[in-house]
Amino acid sequence: MRKLVWSGVVLCGLLAGCASRQDVGSAPENPQPAEAGAEVAAPTPEDARPVEAAPAEDEAPFPVLPVQPLVVTANPAPKDAIILNSARVEGGILVLDVTHGGGCAEHTYSLAWDGALQPGADGTPVANLVLVHDGNRDRCKALLRAHPRFDLSAISQRFSAQSGKTSGTVNLALADQAPVRYDF
Fold it and tell me: What distance in Å separates the CA atoms of residue 23 and residue 102, rounded to the nearest whole number?
């Protein structure tokens, strides 16, 4: 009987602790302290949205992450777990939609490339890209979504150097995604 009561107390404590914590998105980076004597407004649904993702047309607006350069390295390899939901090219920028766990530390994203353009099955060159996610040892369980953006100019420059053409098409190959067409 004692074990049963103790188990019930522990379970209730766990459930109460989990229910009091909201695991959606991440907290604002620089919350504004309330001034002395000022009224504090009740939080709105907009206050609960994640802050590290960029908007898609059908989503809530999130701050836009800065465009990062493509990292050219001999042996690109992934680091921390991440789910790549989609990829698209806007101008010379690759925009990714990613999901991963976390919520207690700042996450960083980089896009690595070995610098080679492989011949594709249809004759279109292929750049094999690797998304590198660094969660900074974040063990929290919130489901975070982000839209990191990467400058593709290194690929168009390599294409131009190899082919002598200033415009062309390269297929961008990312893990678990259909190739994304990059026209420049």
Answer: 9
